[in-house]
Amino acid sequence: NRVSDSYMLTQQRNSVNTQDGIAASQISRSGDSNAAEAAKRISGVTIIDDKFVYVRGLGDRYTTTEMNSAPIPSPEPEKKTVPLNLFPSSILESVTAYKTYTPDMPGAFAGGNINIKTKAYPDNRILSVSVSGSAKNYPRRNQAYMVPTSNSGSGFWGFDKRRHAMPSSIPDGVNLNVYNIPGYNTHLERAELLGQVGRDFKTDYTTRNGQASKPISLGLSLGNRYTITDYLEWGYFANTSFSNDYSYKVSNDILYGSDNSGLFRDIDVTNRKSGYNTNIAATFSTGFKFLNSQKVALHYVFTHNSESYVNLGRGMADQFDDGIFYKEFYAERSISNLTLSGNHQFNFYAKHKFDWSYNRGRSELYQPDFKGNNYRVKNQIIDGDTVEYYQMDTYGWSAGTRDFTEGDDNNENIDLNYMLTVKDRFESEYKLKVGSRFQNKNRDFTRRVFYNKYAYQWFVGEIPSDLTVYYDIDELGSALVDSNYFSVNEDGSVNPGLIIAENTQPNDGYRAVENLDAFYFMVDIPLGLGLYSPLNIVRFIAGVRREDYAQNMTPYSPANGEKYYSNILGDTVDIAYHKVDYLPSYNLFVQLPNNFNIRLSHSRTVARVEFRELAPFEFQALYGGEIVVGYPWLKTTNIHNYDLRAEWFHSAGEVLAVSLFKKDFYNPIERAMFDLSDKRYRTYQNTNKAQSWGIEFDSRTGLDFIPTSYGKSSLLFNFTWTQSEVTPDDSITIFTGQAIPNQGNLTKRPLQGQSDFIVNASITYTNLKGFNAALSYNAFSKRLVSLGISPLPDEYELPFHSLNFMASQSYAKLKLSFKMKNILNSRVVFAQEDPASGKYLETTEYHPGRSFSIGLSYDIF
Question: Does residue 40 contact residue 46 with C-beta atoms inside 8 Å?
Fold first, then answer.
């Protein structure tokens, strides 16, 4: 049974790699909704932002994610990390974290390799349907759930591109510059075009009170296995699911400044965010098996996630003593992945195993019309009374931004592996394995930025006050509507009004191509070497992998498609990076009696530069809005990994394991900050060295003192203690060769995202009458999330304690389930430590709230 805990532990016991994982049966008992929630149950694994995986305190470039042992593309525009919350638990067979490297694995490895395995065809015919509904304690009755005025409910299933699309009236290949648009030679022609574009946007900057319905989840699964002859079987499995979620979050967000008296609040805003998310997944797998030695399988996975929210903040911010800050966000992310694989075994004087796979994947990000607008809160005396009013911010005679970001990432991959196994006179096996990977990735991401200005008949000028002043807070943004945009009447007279202008930069798009050609050789031999059988309990696994990696990146203007020309370099910019690495691995695997194993490993792996980190120019990050300057002479990070593990599989489905690990990083790529020309920049630099080390403890055991007549209970507990240390350099070098002081904190610090402690615990109970229950706990200690700019301290996410409960009762083919999440009603808190008092000063704080759900599933057969 491939979805059982026992099968997962058998794989773990026999593997030459150190690995930990969670099977579908445990995922179901814990009530985890997606791969991200499931992965955090694995020892040493944490999840950042509810979607990005970190293994042993290492994420982003230090951790790779695969599906069915093949790479998958990422919809993230600035990095290669794959968000695990895109994969619902209904499609998962298991999630495994490989923590030691062998040459048959990708060489970009430090924290670990996460392999998501989707369900294959079942042993018996199945057809089941499921439905569930849930409730939250947010929003409360006195809290207004906001939706955009233009929202007609068309995005219920998570597909709403038409309403958010960029207008077709925008001419191809031009930047909408107010003063220079090819083919539009006069001010009047340009203003008429830009007014029409403004009217053609299908959404505006207003909101209305909506209704936060109860989230639902729907699922359908079917599959079967067919025995065609005694030698041939065929099967299939298909699954589709839909889930949605309504959210309401009140957060207090603070940014601190510093002067001679210490820290002070520079920004202090209370944000109220109303959100709606959906997740759709569809999988299909099929395959056949001949003579139990020839297997071919096909797996297809499609996931689609949508996220939307309206955020209204009020408080103090830069240049605003009291302000209101409006944001409206919508995004769709999708991944489609197809894997065709084969596994063939032949016994001809020896055992020959040949396996291959072809994988093709595509991810897409569609993030259109991200709107923002700010208002100043002022007071006015009217008839002796103080009246509050709101003035739209029109800095630079401009107001209301619209940001369109989209892109795709495509991956094509071929894996070929051959293993020869022979035996000596003691029946001990000697294995020789060789193989290759040929991988090509290409991605294209763009960002276009628009805003509103005001055009009169002969010139562009200040937006008049009758469009910028509001006395009713519910009317905010109501002036930025179709009727107030510039137009020309049939008689040639002009109606002055708003126009759309563009602020897209000539490097706001980029295309990147990656090529990886890898070849490896490894052996797995007993130390007895056919001479002394007692030594055959010790196996030596060693080899080397050669990776030839090349990356090319070309920045360009999304408006007209022209390659970016750098005035500093005096040429168009094409960035090329090429490196050949030889990555060895040495392992000792001791298999003692009574299912007791000892593992010792040393390997060298790499962490590579990601896309625009090499760009020799200034650009704005597609997410977060930071101004970034790349550095074209970044070096690959070399990592030496050391692991020692003892594990005892004392019974079926039970294990006790202790691991020690240490990692040395040479030329680690780290963020650095600097100020130049009244701007603050982020860049990337190689520091000299960094280290990480820690201990893991993992236990899964049955509670045998409970009589079986009452049922069966088990306890899962794992604990990880990790330390890391990075010493930043005093100065940084930008691409012009200029050395600049590093404005970031220069004291030793941990790696970003690393927690000193991670704890997982769960207790499960099941009985013969079909009742199952599980109580699951997860916690982590504080972790660094962003670097401070000296003298401001670094920002940390403080500990979060999660306690969830899951129970189900089966009646024949019917199953009723109940889930409760965040029973402790824990808060999410980000904070900076005040160097004067030693106290934590909260920068962001909110309650995710408790949630409850009731589900019903029915197995038709």
Answer: yes
Each residue's pLDDT tens digit, 675-717: 766 667 788 888 878 999 999 999 999 888 877 778 889 999 9
How far apart are alpha carbons 413 and 519 in whole angstroms?
14
Give the burial string for 96-110 (b: 16+ CB within 10 Å, else e).
Answer: bbbbbbbbbbbbbbb
Of residues 805, 803, 784, the one with CA closest to residue 794 = 784
Structure-token pair, residue 394: 């029109």
Q: What is the pLDDT of residues 617-643, one digit of tens each?
A: 777 665 555 688 888 888 999 999 999
**Is 672 in contact with 685 (CB distance < 8 Å)?**
yes
Q: Which residues contact 539 (CB under 8 A, 6 or more apart)?
A: 16, 524, 525, 526, 527, 588, 589, 590, 591
* ω into 791 cis (within 30 of 0): yes
Give residue 745's pLDDT.
66
Q: What is the DSSP string of 522-533?
A: EEEEETTTTT-G
The Cβ of residue 175 has, within 10 Å, a number of other Cβ atoms equal to 20
SS3 of residue 679 by DSSP: strand
3-state class (DSSP) for residue 60: helix
Provide the pairing of β-strand 216-227 with 126-136: antiparallel
Question: Which structure tokens are listed for 760?
Answer: 């997982």
> What is the sign of the dihedral through the CA atoms of 789, 792, 794 and 800?
negative
- The pTM of the whole model exceeds 0.90: yes
What is the DSSP pairing of strand 509-526 with strand 494-495?
A: unpaired
DSSP string, 681-692: EEEEEE-SEEEE
Encoded amino acid at 700, one letter: R
What six digits make up the tokens of 12?
A: 């773990």
Q: Which two tokens stand for residue 94?
A: 């298991």
Torsion angle (degrees, nearest 10) of CA 593, 597, 600, 604: 140
Percent with pLDDT over 90 in the chain: 68
CA neighbor of 281 nearest in space, from 98, 119, 50, 475? 119
Residue 796 parent element (H or E): strand 795-797
Phi and psi of 734, rounded to 5°?
A: -90, 175
- The separation between CA 122 and the C-alpha centre of its own chain, rounded to angstroms, equals 30
How many whole angstroms separate alpha carbon 336 and alpha carbon 304? 9
d(CA 155, CA 158): 5
Contacts of 854 (CB under 8 A, 6+ apart): 132, 133, 134, 816, 817, 818
Contact 190, 170 (CB under 8 A): no
What's the pLDDT at 624?
55
What length does the chain have?
Answer: 861
Q: For residue 845, which amino acid is it?
A: E
- Provide the 3-class DSSP secondary structure of residue 475: helix
| DSSP secondary structure code for residue 165 in this structure | P
**Residue 188 φ/ψ, nearest 5 degrees:** -65, -40
Contact (CB, 8 A) for 71 and 359: yes
For residue 621, the model assigns a pLDDT of: 67
Q: Quick one: average pLDDT of 403-425? A: 95
Distance separating alpha carbons of residues 516 and 551, to the nearest angstrom: 9
| CA separation for the pair 95, 762 (Å, rounded) | 17
Q: Per residue in 666-696, is it b (16+ CB within 10 Å) or e — as a string?
A: bbbbbbbbbeeeeeebbbbbbbeebebbbeb
Residue found by looking up tokens 């989707």 in the block? 118
Question: Which residue, among 617, 746, 651, 757, has the nearest Cα to 694 in the 3D structure?
Answer: 757
On the CB side of 819, CA atoms within 13 Å amount to 22
DSSP 546-593: EEEEEEEEEEE-TTT-PBPEETTTTEE--EEEEEEEEEEEEEEEEEET
pLDDT digits (tens, 9 = 90+) for 102-155: 999 999 988 889 999 999 999 899 999 999 998 887 666 667 888 888 877 778
> Which pair of structure tokens corresponds to residue 562?
């022209």
